[in-house]
Structures are given as structure tokens and as C-alpha cells.
């Protein structure tokens, strides 16, 4: 029996016809898939998917449009190309993710180094303030006290603390090059 007639019978649910069709087309299907996919294990998987699709979609075969073998091999080729494209896309995604992870790690290192240098420079500039200015600025900016709380802790009038803070911050800004 020819593949065309077998495929028509498979479309009607004939399992015996599918067995015969399977025997007839499995070799050419696997050969075509193997040439496209190249990987033997992947090729077996794709060929199996094609033959399963053949059983499920045999009703879509139209003998007026071509031979059964051509139709089956077209299914196989499309499925094989889809698998290759899918594998290529997965590889590209993994490579992009790998590059992104590498770039992120590099950026974190650069940021940590930059932050360390900035801390050193701020310490240097704090060292150039008077003891009273440094004390007020440190309590407010490093310990988190409000101006009023700084005044209470130092037992000074609020206006005096504000003046020290303003003068200290002005000197810090000048030392840091106007970036603060």
C-alpha cells in the first residue's frame, strides 16, 4: 500500500495503517531531521514528535496538493527547523544573561571602589574643619540628630549650632570641589 492511501486511512483512525505508514516514513523522517538538527538525541526526539503529529493531524493531508511522503517530510523539516531556532534562541538568551551578570558584577566592583574613594575624600575634608564644626556636622549627618538635638547634646544655643553647621558645610563643599 502507498503512503497516500495509508495516510488517508490513518486520518480515519486506522491504527494498523499507522503502523505501516510509520515503518514506511520513519527512516526518511529521521534522516531529514538528523541533517537539520545534527544532534542524534535531539533528532530522535524531533522525529518522534513529527510521527506523533502525523497521527494527530493526518486529517489535514490533502492528496490533491501533493504526495503523503512530501507532506510528512515537510512536517519533519518544519519541526526540525523550529527546534534549531529554539535552541539557538535559548543559547543567545543564556549568553545575554551571562554577559549581564558579568557586567553587573563589574559595575558593583567599580561602584564599591568609587564609594571607598569618596569616603576617604570626605574624611579628608572633615579633617580640615574646626573641631567644633566637625563635632556638629558629625552629630547631625552621621549620628542622625536634628539641629535642636545637636544643640541640646552640646549644651549650646540653637543659633550657634546652625552657624557652625553652615560654616562647616560651606568648608566641606569647597573642599569637595562644589559637588556636595
Secondary structure blueprint with pairings:
Blueprint: H1 3-11, H2 15-37, H3 40-57, H4 68-127, H5 131-142, H6 147-154, H7 158-175
Helix pairs in contact: 1-2, 2-3, 2-4, 3-4, 5-7, 6-7
Architecture overview:
Belongs to the sigma-70 factor family. ECF subfamily. Keywords: Sigma factor, Transcription, Transcription regulation. It holds the Pfam family Sigma70_r4_2. Residues 120-172 form the RNA polymerase sigma factor 70 region 4 type domain. This protein is an all-alpha fold and 180 residues long. It has helices at residues 3-11, 15-37, 40-57, 68-127, 131-142, 147-154, 158-175. Helix 1 (3-11) crosses helix 2 and helix 2 runs antiparallel to helix 3 (40-57). It is rod-shaped and about 105 Å long. The N and C termini lie far apart (88 Å). The mean pLDDT is 90.
Structure described in brief:
82% of the residues lie in helices and 0% in strands.
Task: Name the poorly predicted regions.
Answer: none
Total DSSP E strands: 0
Helix content: over 70%
The overall pLDDT average reads 90
- How many distinct helices? 7
Radius of gyration: 38 Å
Measured distance between first and last alpha carbons: 88 Å
Protein name: Sigma-70 family RNA polymerase sigma factor
InterPro entries: RNA_pol_sigma-70-like (IPR039425), RNA_pol_sigma-70_dom (IPR014284), RNA_pol_sigma70_r2 (IPR007627), RNA_pol_sigma70_r4_t2 (IPR013249), RNA_pol_sigma_r2 (IPR013325), RNA_pol_sigma_r3/r4-like (IPR013324), WH-like_DNA-bd_sf (IPR036388)
Family: Belongs to the sigma-70 factor family. ECF subfamily.
Keywords: Sigma factor, Transcription, Transcription regulation
Amino acid at each position: 500500500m502507498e503512503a497516500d492511501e495509508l495516510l488517508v486511512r490513518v486520518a480515519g483512525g486506522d491504527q494498523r495503517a499507522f503502523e505501516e505508514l510509520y515503518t514506511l516514513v520513519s527512516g526518511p523522517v529521521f534522516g531529514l531531521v538528523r541533517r537539520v538538527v545534527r544532534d542524534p538525541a535531539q533528532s530522535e526526539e524531533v522525529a518522534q514528535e513529527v510521527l506523533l503529529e502525523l497521527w494527530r493531524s493526518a486529517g489535514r493531508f490533502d492528496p490533491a496538493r501533493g504526495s503523503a511522503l512530501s507532506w510528512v517530510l515537510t512536517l519533519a523539516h518544519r519541526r526540525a527547523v523550529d527546534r534549531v531556532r529554539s535552541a539557538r534562541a535559548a543559547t543567545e538568551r543564556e549568553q545575554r544573561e551571562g554577559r549581564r551578570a558579568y557586567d553587573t558584577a563589574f559595575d558593583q566592583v567599580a561602584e564599591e571602589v568609587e564609594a571607598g574613594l569618596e569616603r576617604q575624600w570626605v574624611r579628608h575634608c572633615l579633617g580640615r574643619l574646626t573641631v567644633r564644626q566637625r563635632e556638629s556636622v558629625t552629630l547631625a549627618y552621621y549620628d542622625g540628630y536634628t539641629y535642636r538635638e545637636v544643640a541640646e547634646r552640646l549644651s549650646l544655643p540653637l543659633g550657634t549650632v546652625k552657624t557652625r553647621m553652615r560654616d562647616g558645610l560651606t568648608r566641606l563643599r569647597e573642599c569637595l570641589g562644589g559637588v556636595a
